[in-house]
Design goal:
Blueprint: E1 15-18, H1 22-31, E2 39-43, H2 81-87, H3 91-97, H4 104-117, E3 121-123, E4 125-133, E5 138-146, E6 152-160, E7 162-165, E8 169-171, H5 178-181, E9 188-190, H6 194-202, E10 207-210, H7 214-225, E11 234-237, H8 258-265, H9 269-278, H10 280-283, H11 288-300, E12 310-313, E13 316-323, E14 329-335, E15 340-346, E16 348-351, E17 355-357, H12 391-394, E18 399-402, H13 407-410, H14 420-432
Parallel strand pairs: 1-2, 1-7, 2-3, 7-18, 9-16, 10-11, 10-16, 11-12
Antiparallel strand pairs: 4-5, 5-6, 8-17, 13-14, 14-15
């Protein structure tokens, strides 16, 4: 159903989405029944893929299945995970499985099912530039349509009154290791490519996993299970002071609610920045079941009286790194608490060092004069996920929304799958000026501040020509 875009017309769209990850896919799914909206979403990849290199057998997403693309905003949506199961005649098997957390591979397949059936999604379309056209009071979005080989096939442009950026994150490579990742002769790779190179890694002698989060734990466990007892030759290091479990208590999880998001957004900028550095265990810790599985596997290897050939050391960071032969790597390590240094020679390195928000500056270079920034030169984002723009633009009721790029303004829940449907509903309610998806007035037992949290109001003053009849095509 992903048809090619029609030629540009004089009628601007209501909404153009850039990027098709879970966030914008959620928005597209919730926008689908709003037939008065003319929308289009562009993605440079050939199809939907959600961290394909990390879909390790048995690995599960860290939110319940109710945190799908739509359910927490509209449980009756045809794009829910439960309806996906029903459509594939798997509802009863899932029922008897009694699993609240589904496997990552299944979540990826579910999202691809939605992407394959939703209209208005255009893969193999690379967005080149976004500009403001003051003569038309609309945004211009230039894109390149790619062929099956990823080469430029055609150029296009569309006009729109609203844009939503959902370009996601990119792998973070620590500076000392970037030259090694760029060298194809040296087996140093980011965890996002783990499955692609797993067979090669398993043949390596000594392997080092860098990173003490969930991905690092899963990769260490997967490698451990496929190494012979007593000859594991695995080293796992991380910067955190412990291989710590993720905070998963009921009240702790209330940091991933709309209530906390609104509270966080209302805080002063310096307070928000300080808080983000202290909350790592809420979203960067390791699932307790994964830690238990690692310990069980290690313990099992001591039954013959020996110890596995593994080293697990937290509180360590890589100062520098380099090659000492064609295929061997030397890591210069520093222990933060001991203030000691050592060298580690290894045959392969897997960097489970996480992902960072993709910078918006390059994509929005044409809008730089219109952007309003905070004291750290980051985009200012209001409570409804809109970039703060020059009044010359916002006076025309045109806006740019962001998804999963607002952690500095909305807190640690920005990338959390459990808030995707709520954020999408907020954007659609704000854009249309209608209560399409009524939001709960309270979502947490915790009261995060002494002052009562203000409930967001849907803008009521809209231009009469904001919404246009849906065009044929996309």
């Amino acid at each position: 159903m992903n048809t090619p875009p029609p030629p540009d017309t004089d009628t601007p769209r209501d909404l153009v989405g850039i990027g098709i990850g879970p966030s914008n896919l959620s928005l597209a799914a919730l926008a689908h029944p709003l037939t008065e909206l003319d929308t289009a979403f562009y993605e440079q990849r050939p199809r939907f893929d959600w961290h394909p290199g990390l879909l390790i057998d048995g690995s599960r997403i860290q939110v319940p299945f109710l945190a799908d693309l739509v359910t927490l905003a509209d449980p009756t949506s045809p794009w829910s995970f439960l309806n996906y199961l029903k459509t594939h005649h798997r509802l009863y098997p899932f029922y008897f499985t009694e699993r609240f957390h589904i496997q990552r591979a299944e979540y990826d397949t579910y999202c691809r099912w939605v992407a394959d059936h939703l209209p208005g999604l255009h893969f193999r379309h690379h967005v080149d530039a976004v500009r403001w056209n003051p003569e038309r009071d609309t945004f211009e979005v230039d894109y390149t349509q790619l062929d099956t080989n990823g080469e430029a096939e055609a150029l296009g442009r569309t006009h729109t009154r609203n844009i939503v950026l959902g370009i996601g994150t990119e792998p973070h490579i620590p500076a000392p290791l970037r030259p090694l990742v760029d060298d194809p002769r040296v087996p140093v790779l980011h965890s996002t490519d783990y499955l692609t190179h797993r067979d090669t890694l398993r043949t390596a002698g000594h392997i080092t996993v860098v990173g003490s989060g969930q991905s690092g734990a899963e990769i260490f466990l997967d490698l451990l299970r496929h190494r012979p007892p007593g000859r594991e030759q695995l080293h796992w290091i991380g910067r955190t002071e412990a291989f710590a479990p993720m905070e998963y208590s009921k009240l702790g999880l209330e940091h991933f609610t709309p209530d906390y998001t609104r509270y966080f957004h209302a805080l002063a900028e310096p307070v928000r920045d300080r808080l983000l550095t202290t909350q790592w265990q809420l979203h960067k810790g390791i699932d307790a079941a994964t830690l238990a599985a690692i310990h069980d596997e290690l313990y099992h290897r001591t039954l013959d009286g020996g110890w596995p050939d593994t080293v697990l050391t937290p509180g360590v960071h890589v100062r520098t790194a380099g090659r000492i032969s064609t295929t061997r790597i030397e890591l210069h390590l520093e222990h933060t608490q001991q203030n000691t240094r050592t060298r580690l020679t290894t045959d392969a390195v897997v960097l489970a060092t996480g992902h960072r928000e993709r910078p918006l500056d390059h994509l929005l270079a044409g809008l730089d004069p219109y952007l309003r920034r905070d004291n750290s030169e980051r985009p200012r984002i209001d409570e409804q996920f809109r970039l703060a723009l020059d009044p010359a633009i916002t006076a025309t009721d045109c806006h740019i929304y962001v998804q999963n790029a607002e952690r500095h303004t909305h807190g640690i829940g920005a990338p959390d799958l459990g808030l995707a449907a709520w954020r999408s509903a907020t954007i659609l309610n704000t854009l249309t000026g209608k209560d399409n998806y009524p939001q709960p007035t309270r979502t947490a037992f915790t009261t995060f501040g002494l002052q009562k949290q203000r409930q967001p109001q849907i803008p009521s003053a809209r231009r009469p020509h904001t919404l246009t009849p849906l065009r044929d095509g996309i």
